[in-house]
Each structure stands twice: as C-alpha cells, then as structure tokens.
Design brief:
With 99 residues, this protein is of the alpha+beta class. The chain has one domain (2-98). Helices cover 41% and strands 19% of the residues. It has four helices and four strands. β1 and β2 form a beta hairpin. The longest helix is centred in the last third of the chain and has 19 residues, at 80-98.
C-alpha cells in the first residue's frame, strides 16, 4: 500500500497488491471479483464509515492498483479524524490479506 497526498476532507491510499483479485484471476473470474468483492467497498464506505468512496479502477478490473479515496459525506458527523481512523482500520484489514 502507498499513502497518497490528499486534500482537506479526503483520505486516500493506493493498494498495490490484492490476493483476492489474484485468486479470482487464477480462476478466470476477475469480473466476478469486481462485481462482488470490489463492489462491497462502496456500501461499506457509505453505511459503515459515513464517507463517499471514489475509485477509478481496481486490480481485479485490470488496473495496476486500487486507488481508494474517501470523502467525508456532507450532512453527517464525519470528520477528517473519523475518516482517518477508518482508513487505519481498512489499511489493517488490507494489510492482513496482502501479507
């Protein structure tokens, strides 16, 4: 994973490796990975972390990395501190799968 510079209210990092995407690829099921595993990131961001996830691509979708960018949702109590805390939780989870 690689942290990326971000603007106010945005937390982001690039995931450079994904064992889940790699497994689905060995099974020739990358599209299924995108539509299931990768798709879960968006409702998690909204419903659990109260942030909007923006991602232009994913490893499973053929990109070199997954570019995660979270924006605190307007009209919620989310603060940059909360989004940053959620980032730490996500990075720990992703790190578990990558290591």
């Amino acid at each position: 994973m690689k942290d990326v510079a971000s603007t106010a209210g945005v937390v982001g990092f690039d995931c450079l490796k994904c064992p889940v995407a790699e497994y689905f690829k060995t099974q020739e099921l990358s599209e299924l990975c995108v539509r299931t595993w990768c798709a879960l990131d968006f409702p998690l961001a909204t419903d659990v972390w109260h942030a909007k996830l923006e991602r232009s691509g994913s490893i499973a979708g053929g990109q070199s990395h997954c570019d995660f960018r979270w924006r605190a949702e307007h009209g919620t109590s989310s603060t940059r501190r909360e989004v940053e805390a959620n980032r730490e939780a996500v990075m720990a989870l992703v790190g578990y799968y990558v290591s």
